[in-house]
TrEMBL record:
Binds 1 Fe cation per subunit. The keyword Iron applies. Residues 21-121 form the Pirin N-terminal domain. This is Pirin. Residues 177-298 form the Pirin C-terminal domain. CDD domains: cupin_pirin_C (cd02247), cupin_pirin_N (cd02909). One of its GO terms (molecular function) is metal ion binding. Fe cation binds at H59, H61, H103, E105.
Length: 302
């Protein structure tokens, strides 16, 4: 296997979304289309209820999938199709907005005192943007944890590790989503489909994320700036975007362990027209979507 090199690093940055939720944005609008088919990743991690309780009241989505992964705490949700429920520690919700859905996501005060989770958006290709909305609510108990050599563990949400397939399947972009922990002083390699976009988001610890031991070896020298402090080792709250060339990622830890989310998917290579919670292919499609929302004709399937 040939190892993928690091294309670029991004440090997550504080922002406020929803009705006043304080979170950190790992990547978003300004990084499009580098992460194609992925659009955005937000990290909400706080022990102060005032940071997260305002939540994300009723709002529309069209043309995308939203993926929520809760590590600690509880998020209640409801939607225009009458679905209601909650996701707690270790649970995942994979929502395909498709032709349109109106929903809310409201964090509740965490029993542990800490709310920690992630939401990222994946784009839908033009041919599926108006597909019927659907949910996949996956409980922590249904997510397999694979124990690999040298104490490495991988929770398989989507994709396959050591012949074990995750519960999220039959998604348009053929995603892989893994929660991986690598002990100190360990080398871990994982194969990836050729040509798929891949990134890692570090939750804790540190490690080297390619075989060069220089996270900036492939950064454009002429740019003259970097998105994070120049260190060879990558640490928490950092996004590692990999090159498309190569068929495996490699992670080597120092005297500290590392935990990270690894996400990969098939790029779409299509134009993007994005405003707020709606992502289409043209400005005209955006105009129609917001016009329908104002007129009350936004929901096509219910």
């Amino acid at each position: 296997m040939t190892t993928r090199h690091i294309k670029k690093l991004f440090k997550s940055r504080p922002t406020i979304e929803g009705a006043g939720v304080h979170l950190k944005r790992a990547f978003g609008y300004s990084q499009v289309p580098q992460f194609d088919p992925f659009l955005m990743l937000d990290d909400f991690h706080s022990s102060n209820p005032a940071d997260y309780l305002p939540g994300f009241p009723w709002h529309p989505h069209r043309g995308i999938e939203t993926i929520t992964y809760v590590l600690e705490g509880l998020v209640e949700h409801g939607d225009s199709m009458g679905n209601k429920g909650g996701i707690g520690g270790g649970d995942v919700q994979w929502m395909t907005a498709g032709s349109g859905i109106i929903h809310q996501e409201m964090p509740r005060e965490s029993p542990t005192g800490t709310m920690w989770g992630f939401q990222f958006w994946a784009n839908l290709p033009a041919a599926q943007k108006m597909m019927p909305p659907r949910y996949r609510d996956v409980k922590a108990a249904d997510i397999p944890e694979v124990k690999l050599a040298d104490g490495v563990t991988a929770k398989v949400i989507a994709g396959t590790v050591a012949g074990v397939q995750g519960p999220v399947r039959d998604i348009v972009i053929e995603p892989e989503m893994l929660d991986i922990s690598v002990p100190a002083g360990t080398l871990f390699r994982h194969p990836l489909p050729a040509g798929h976009t891949a990134f890692a988001y570090l939750l804790a610890g540190e490690g080297y994320f390619d075989d060069c031991r220089d996270a900036y070896a492939h950064e454009a020298a002429s740019a003259g700036w970097w998105d994070t402090e120049r260190r060879c080792v990558c640490s928490a709250e950092t996004v590692v975007l990999f090159d498309h060339e190569g068929d495996a990622v490699q992670v080597t830890t120092t005297d500290k362990p590392v935990r990270f989310i690894l996400v990969a998917g098939r790029p779409l290579g299509e134009p993007i027209a994005w405003y707020g919670p709606i992502v289409m292919n043209t400005q005209e499609e955006l105009r129609v979507a917001f016009e329908e929302y104002e007129k009350g004709t936004f929901i096509k399937h219910g």
